[in-house]
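In keeping with the milestone schedule agreed at the kick-off meeting, the structural modelling team has produced records for the first pair of proteins. Each record is given below as a sequence line and a structure-token line. The laboratory manager (R.T.) confirmed that both were archived under the project's standard naming scheme.
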Amino acid sequence: MTYPPSGIALESVKGDHAAMSLLSVKSLSNARIARCLHQAGEAELRIVRRFYALTRSRLVCLVTILINGLGNGWIYLVLAWALYERMPVRASRTIGIAALSAGIAHALYAVIKRAVARPRPFERDASIVPVARVLDRYSFPSGHCMTATAVAIPVLLAVPDWWWTAVLAVLLMALAKMVTGHHYPSDILGGLLLGLAAACPVSMWTY
């Protein structure tokens, strides 16, 4: 004689079905997210290819290499000199705040860089041959744009009428990093936001 399943057994079966349904929904959701991220990545790669194509111009290529080299650190020496020329008494304080802001940003940057581990555009597309060397391995976020933003905020609070120069410098840096094939647009945005996140609290606290 067979007995009908008990209430406990029925509840167990229902629970198993519910768990399986939940897992199916979760898997489907993850697959959709992965597909959307892949499509976004492909769209960004197409954008980088368009910027990289500008290196066919020798002038654009040379200017890009120059901007990239300045962004490796030389531009900040020029900025420090300009600050001492503009305001000899307050320059050291402003440079110190900018250095602290950039230091905090770089500490966060190192953690994020390793956690995301995003391949650079030229690593995904062999037709993109970088016209300048990279300073580290991964793509997200852009360290050059992050540093430029982290330094620019305290400097602009000290010398507000330099805003147009700062905006132009950061914009040129962002464009150059895509022309070189080093970064995607979202890397640039991530670097800008990280620089802001580090600079704003430090600048507001110290000024």
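The second protein of the pair:
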Amino acid sequence: MYSVGEKVDDMIIQSYEGMTENYVRLFKVKCAICGAEKVIQYSRLNSHKCTFHNVKTCDYCHSADKNIGLTINDYTIIKRLSRRYKTSAYYLARCNVCGMEFETTIGNFKRYGTKHENCTCHIPKNENLKRFRKIYSCMRYRTTNPKYTEWYLYGGRGISSEYYADFMVFYKELFRSYLEHIEKYGIKDTTLDRIDCNGNYEKGNVRWATCREQVLNQRRYYEKS
């Protein structure tokens, strides 16, 4: 039995990963040369198969991988990952517009959407994301739709949200602070507020505020101060 930290040829034992349903022992190893990590069976480790840097599953072939650097529309493959799905390798892709990164197989990368508009599909799941999206939709609706009942208070008097026309800009700039405000004040007391109530929804003029702060920042109070 191997111990954590022990070196077998080019591989360093990282951890014991347990057994499969067939009682095959698994170990997580890391290549001392390139840093690639993988999980291999005890028998392969003990027989010195897959324990050298120049085996197919190691990172030696990654630098020559023709898929790295591949750009389709707004996305680029930037790195090959160690995990696999059956016979398909996983890659890390990045949006050249907003910087969103996500994992994908090369087949899915070529087959599905590769435009910036699809970045919202790659946002990590979060229980507070649904309400965050609703806040965004309401902001856009009251500044772009003349049919909104209180249009005269927003878009009707020139208040714009065009800076946040792209949801990913809104997400990148405000989601983390949204979660921090929720943690401190609770979800029901977290609202989107304009610091200057006569200004637009744009960077530097938006914040998360409590309901009380929202009321005290209305025009009737703002203009008096």
